[in-house]
Amino acid sequence: MSIWQRIADAIAALANGEGLTAVFDKLRAEPEKTVAFTIAVIALGAKMAKADGLVTRGEVSAFREVFTIPPEDEDNAARVFNLARQDVAGFDSYARKIAAMFDDRHDTLFDLMEGLFHIAVADDNYHDAEDQFLSVVARIFGMTDAEFRTLRARYVPDADHDPYFILGATPDMSLKDVRALWRELVRETHPDRMMARGVPEEARKMAEKRLVQINRAWEEISEKAA
């Protein structure tokens, strides 16, 4: 059974008038974490699209870069997206439900935030409304301000691209400590580590872009120290 068929099963209750927040409650079981992650990105992506007022082709394309949706399953994905946009529940309500599902998986929530940043910057126009949206979601997910700045530095074109921010390091750290942090980030990007965090196979494509940025930041720091 494909992930999209499983998602269709998970949202079957919506035909009876239940909202997506009820679906999130039903997906707390460990075997459904991958489905939950996918629904979370769709739902929060829809709410974020509503925050800046429009859905661009770039954002749709960015979503397809993260999730490969077979033609026969496009209706299931579209149904989740449209329901999320129309649901009276606020995005913060969704975010709290999602945080509760992954309360023991901070890394998975970090991955989810990466997916949202990837979609937000796809139209080459990172809106203030999107920044506010993402900052609130990050706080609900338990991310620190430093972690949020790290993600913004990695993804937003006109953000401060300080290489230390990108690595989540600080300029007062020794080169040895920065190198150790860089190596750990590279290890965390390995497909096996991401699979252990319950991230869908398609979502691991985000790791490719992350790895390029991480390596580039380390190269910049190490070259300056040479």
Radius of gyration: 18 Å
What is the rounded distance between the termini?
53 Å
In total, the number of strands is 0
> What overall geometry do the principal axes of the alpha carbons give?
globular
**Overall average residue pLDDT:** 77
**Number of helices, where a helix is a run of at least 4 consecutive DSSP H or I residues:** 13
As a percent range, the share of strand residues is: under 5%
3D structure, described in words:
The chain is mainly α. The protein has one domain. It is 67% helix and 0% strand. The chain is built from 13 helices and no strands. Helix 2 (20-26) runs parallel beside helix 6 and helix 3 packs antiparallel against helix 6. The termini are far apart.
Summarize the SSE layout with pairings.
Layout (H helix, E strand, L loop, with lengths): L2 H8 L9 H7 L6 H19 L5 H10 L7 H13 L4 H11 L4 H15 L7 H13 L4 H11 L7 H5 L7 H14 L2 H6 L9 H20 L1
Helix pairs in contact: 1-3, 2-6, 3-5, 3-6, 3-7, 4-7, 6-8, 7-8, 11-13
Keywords:
226 residues; mainly alpha; 0% strand
Short description:
This protein is 67% helix and 0% strand. It has 226 residues and is mostly helical. It has one domain.
